[in-house]
Amino acid sequence: MKKVMVSLSVMALAASLGASAKDWKEIHFGVDATYAPFESKSADGKIVGFDIDLGNEICRRLKAKCVYVENDFDGMIPALKAKKFDGILSSMSITPKRMEAINFTSKLFNTPSRLVAKAGAGIQPTAASLKGKRIGVEQGTIQEDYAKQKWAAAGVEVVPYQNQDLVMADLVAGRIDGAFQDAVMASEGFLKKPQGKGFAFAGPAVNDKQIMGEGAGIGLRKEDTELRDAMNKAIADMLKDGTYNKIQKKYFDFDVYGG
Amino acid sequence: MNGFIDIVDTYWKAYLWTDGYKLSGLVITLWLLAISVFLGFILSIPLSVARVSKNKWVSKPVWFYTYIFRGTPLYVQLLLIYSGLYSLDVVRNVDVLNSFFKEGMNCTILAFALNTCAYTTEIFAGAIKATPYGEIEAARAYGMTKFTAYRRIILPSALRRALPAYSNEVIFMLHSTPIAFSATVPDLLKVARDANAATYRSFEAFGLAALIYLCITFSLVWVFRRAERRWLAYLQPRRAK
After folding, report:
1. Do A160 and B186 lie within an 8 Å CB cutoff?
2. Alpha carbon of A171 to those of A113, A148, A190, B90, B180: distances in Å?
3. Which of A140, B164, B214, B222 is close enough to B197 for a disulfide, judged by CB 3.0 to 4.6 Å?
C-alpha cells in the first residue's frame, strides 16, 4: 500500500513538473486567414503571409514547431482561453480592453495610418494643411477617432462612411479631397489596383499612441508568462539582427514596424 | 440597465442633435423626414390630378414616374442618385449640378422626396378616383369650372379620405431614413452604430435608437389621429348624445 502511495505521488509530482516546465515543442497559433497580406490562404490551401513568416521565425528561434489553427477572429480570445491553441497570431491590435482578458507579446508591427489623395494634391495630414478640405474615414475606426479629435475642431470637414469601399468610391468621384485609413489597406486594396490610378499617399504616416494604439502583437494566455518572455526575446533579436527587415521587404515597400 | 445609462450618459447629445462638430441623430432624421414629406406632398397634388387625367399625354408620364419609383427599392434609388449620378461627367462638369450632387444631404433629400412623392401621388390619385359621383355632379350643377371644382370639392374631399393611407406613407418614410448614412448623412441609426462600435453594447446602442424611433412614430400616429378626428368627422358613425 505504501509503495503504491509513493509511486502514485511520484507520478503526480512528475506530471505536475512536466506541466509547469513544458518546453513548448509545438506552439499552436490561432489564425483568421482572411486578411492578406498578413495572413491568408494560398491557392493550395496553405496559410501564408507576413504574420505567418514572423511566427515561423519565432518558432525557429524557440526551437519549436509552429502549428496553425484556423479560427474566426471574433472567437479568438475565448478559444485561446479554452486552450484550443496557445497564441493568437492574427494581426490582433493590442488594446487596453483586450489586455483585460489576455496578455500580448511586444508588438510585431504597427501599420501606420496614411492619407490618400490625388497625386500631386500637395496636402499633408495636419489640421493646418487640411483646413476647409473634406476627408473621408470609415465609421468606427481609429482613423475616424483621430480625424475627429485632431482635425474636425480645426475646420476640417471629416466625413464618416459606412465602409471603406464607399470612402474610396467618393475619393475617385471627387466628392472628398482625401481618404484616411490603414496604409497597408490603402496600398494593397486601392493604390495598386486600376481604380487607384492617379492617386497617391499624401504626406507621412500618422502615429498617435494614445488614440491609435501601439500596433499588433501575439495574444497569449495570462498565465503563460515564460512563453511571452521567450517570444519577446525572439522578436527583439530578429529586429536587431535584420531578419525582421528581410521578412517585411517580402511584403511591404515601407516600414510596417512603426516608430 | 447599467449599459443603457452608460450609453445615454456618453452619447445622448449625439443621439439627439450633435456629435460635437456637426448635427447628427434625431435632428437629422426629423429634418430628412419633414423636408422629403413636405416636398413630396406639394409635388404630388398636381401630379395626382395629372395622373387621373383623361388625356394620355398627361397621365402616362406620371404613371411612368410612379411606376419606376414604386418599382425599385429606395436604397437603390439613393445609391443611383448619390453614387451613380455623381460619377457622370455631365453632372460634374456643370457647376450647379456639381455643387448640388456633391452634398450627400441634397442627394438623400432628392431621393427621398421623389420616392415618397411617387407613393403619395398614387394614394391621392386613388382617392380622387373614388370621389363620390354626387359630389362632382353637385359641383357641375353649380356651374363650377373644372379648376374650381378641383379646388373646392374634389381635392378637399379626396385629401381627407386619403389621410389614413397617407399617414402610413409618412411612417414608412420615417422607417426608410436609416439608409441615409449610405450617403454619409449622419442620421439616428448612424449614431447608434457609433455607440455600438465604441462600446460593444449592441443591445443598448440599438435599443436606444429603437426607443427614439418608437417615440417619433407614436407622435406621428397621435398627430394623424387628431387630424382624422377633425377632418374625417363627417365619415364617422354618429355618437349618441
Report:
1. yes
2. 17, 19, 11, 18, 19
3. A140
% helix / strand / coil in chain B, to the nearest 5? 85, 0, 15
Gyration radius of chain A over CA positions: 22
Mean pLDDT of A90-110: 86
Spatial distance between the Cα atoms of B78 and A150, rounded to a whole number of angstroms: 32
Determine the Cα–Cα distance for residues B29 and B38; give it in Å rounded to an integer. 14
Tally of structural domains, chain A: 2
CB contact under 8 A, B190 and A140: no
Which position has the grid cell 411617387?
B118
The torsion of the CA quartet B158, B77, A180, A47, rounded to 10 degrees, works out to: 130
Cα separations (Å) of A121 from B17, B102, B210? 34, 19, 43
Rounded to the nearest 10 degrees, the angle between the axes of helix A243-251 and helix A225-240 is 80
Q: Which tops the pLDDT comparison, A111 or B227? A: B227
Q: Evaluate if residue B85 carries a pLDDT over 70.
A: yes
Q: Any idea where the domains of chain B sit in the sequence?
A: 2-231
- The position carrying cell 494593397 is A188
Domain range for A228 is: 23-110+214-251
In this prediction, residue A259 carries a pLDDT of: 58
CB contacts, 8 Å: A158 with chain B = 21
Residues A206 and A218 in one domain: no
CA distance readout (Å), A13 to A23, A24, A172, A187, A224 = 17, 19, 67, 55, 20
Cell numbers given for A8? 502514485
What SS3 class is residue A255?
A: coil
Per the DSSP assignment, residues forming a β-bridge with A206 are A113
Phi/psi at B169 (nearest 5 deg)? -60, -40
Among A140, A161, A166, select the one facing B197 at the smallest CB separation.
A140
The answer to whether B119 faces chain A, any CB pair under 8 Å, is no
pLDDT per position as a tens digit, B63-82: 999 999 999 999 999 999 99
Q: B77 and B113 in contact (C-beta within 8 Å)? A: no
The predicted pLDDT at position A9 comes to: 58
Residue A148's alpha-carbon distances to A94, B12, B48, B49, in angstroms, are 22, 18, 46, 49
* Mean pLDDT, chain A, whole residue set: 86
Q: Is residue A6 part of a domain?
A: no
Residue B21 forms contact with A (CB below 8 Å): yes
* Distance between A152 CA and the closest CA of chain B, angstroms: 7
- Residues with Cβ within 8 Å of A181's Cβ and at least 6 positions away in sequence, in order, are A113, A114, A116, A137, A138, A141, A143, A164, A167
